[in-house]
Amino acid sequence: MTSDLPAAPSLPGRPCSIAAALHVVGEKWALLAVRELFYGNHRFDRIARNTGAPRDRLTARLRALEEAGVVERRPYSERPPRYEYHLTEAGRDLAPLTQALLAWGDRWVLPEAPVVFEHTPEGHPPHPYDPRWVCRTCGEPGRGAELRAEIRSPGWTAEGPSGP
Questions:
Q1: pTM of the predicted model, to two decimals?
Q2: Can you tell me the distance from the alpha carbon of 157 to that of 152, in angstroms, rounded to the nearest whole number?
Q3: Which of 77, 79, 94, 137 is deepest in the core (most CB within 10 A)?
Q4: pLDDT tens for each residue of 73-83
Q5: Where are the strands (E) in 58-153, listed by range?
């Protein structure tokens, strides 16, 4: 954790990085705005058009994402003052989340994938890109029965709060 991160929100229930992350990016319009930034759409009008978000709600979400350090505004016009939105390092680190949601939606929600990603490494032909999670130590994909959660929050176990 770096010192330039905002203070952790005080949330009800189990102390959890998932809950804290959802507090920042767990609203539909926030994640769809992030999607558009990954697609290279940086101006408000394009983000609004492509997400279908009400303008006032999108404004609020982009402002919250900026305050959380997920996006930054960059000026592109002085008269009148206008800004583009760009992902910060924290925003770019949301790529695995958006890829996981896309893969899940392709498999369980839509009959046909509306977007397919290709990997285009220099000197090689493009090929389908299917991201996967692997163990950082051995490089093997994790399987449900092989994964274990180590609960590090004082006063909590895997079952819930410990004690009376």
A1: 0.82
A2: 8
A3: 94
A4: 999 999 999 99
A5: 71-77, 82-87, 118-119, 127-128
